[in-house]
């Protein structure tokens, strides 16, 4: 048993909202970057592209959805307007949209077709709306542009059904007047909350945070409980008169830092917010389609490695698949998605823990270890508060080759685990450690070389106040 830390008591009071919890349970969703850039072979348009260049002659949103479903993707976020300002829907706010393109004879609405296809295929739908608009004459004029932007945001939030995400990035440049636009984020947030109360405001928003890179890199220790502020030097000095607090050191929240939530980092925090990580990366080197990259699509092995480190490392995976000039996902991309999904489904088809006997070194008498057999939040395992370290034993129904263990914390009651280890029982009755790690959070997928065993032991070696688990899977 470990001593309580004051910061631990504060941190475990921080829990996800209903909208955050719903998106975390999606685990894996997709981006589709599609605009005039697709046809000009650029990554960033400058807003001067003629609407006539946008003409996907074989556009098929159902093809997109079928490919995404084959990978196990649960939702799709469409770049409804990128920095070039071209709108994939017939916006009444601007002439720079599909309504003035050859697509569907000027009567097309890409957002409508994609959102409808998602609902037919059982995927959730989200929108990306760039706050930077290189085509809008009012960009850089303060409230005039905020009015313009909010009218577009209202169109997307009222005409295309329920959204699971409204995704903002922070791109910002100068307007025609030579001035940068200062975005009225609070106004944008309030509008989304009013029109789409179940949608997460992502990246430049309070619900989902950026992982800090676009390469698919991840942290070894990913925390969803982040400090919102820290004591001043004077407050720390006063506190240290009556406690063992360390001397003050300057801290700040930086999305690119490796440590955003360890005990050492959160010491002297004044408050906490639930901010889960989202890893956004592309299946290709670029975000938009370029024929020159057809031979540079990421391999299935690379995509699976990213999936394990994100979905299996307490981060959401947002994978971009850019449609080509036909308006289709390219055949190579479709093949990669299918292979990825086939591997995941095969690997996790049979949970050996379902027929196992699960015991724990301690429980509180109510929330028993057998509760972790069911993968939902209706029940959970919990020891008494103060029992920071416990061991759970999964006795299988025979000897099996095991290579994966999945652990999920009961995040409706926060993220708590600081360190864990996994052992496999050997033929001689001894145990050998096969995996270890730090944070768990929504989900940790531990993978290791296959071992033949009839018993897996999970040691929670340190946690905040006490660990609370919702699920254990053995594969």
Detailed description of the structure:
- With 475 residues, the chain is an alpha/beta fold.
- Helix content is 23%, strand content 25%.
- It contains eleven helices and 16 strands.
- An eight-stranded parallel sheet has the order 5-4-3-2-1-10-9-6, with helices on both faces.
- α6 links the parallel β3 and β4.
- α6 packs parallel to α7.
For the structure shown, list the relevant keywords.
475 residues; alpha/beta; Jelly Rolls; 2 domains; 23% helix
Short description:
It is built from eleven helices and 16 strands. With 475 residues, it is α/β, with parallel strands linked by helices.
| CATH topology name of the largest domain | TIM Barrel
Biggest sheet character: 8 strands, parallel
Structural class: alpha/beta
Low-confidence sequence ranges:
244-249
Number of spatially distinct domains: 2
Strand elements, count: 16
- Strand coverage percent: 15-25%
Task: Just give the CATH class of the largest domain.
Answer: Alpha Beta
- Neighbour order of strands in the largest sheet: 5-4-3-2-1-10-9-6
Task: Set out the fold topology.
Blueprint: H1 6-11, H2 18-24, E1 28-32, H3 37-40, H4 61-71, E2 75-81, H5 110-121, E3 124-129, H6 143-159, E4 165-168, H7 185-195, E5 200-203, E6 209-210, E7 225-230, H8 233-240, H9 263-266, E8 269-274, E9 277-282, H10 300-310, E10 315-320, H11 331-347, E11 357-360, E12 390-409, E13 417-425, E14 431-437, E15 444-463, E16 469-474
Parallel strand pairs: 1-2, 1-10, 2-3, 3-4, 4-5, 6-9, 9-10
Antiparallel strand pairs: 7-8, 11-12, 12-15, 12-16, 13-14, 13-15
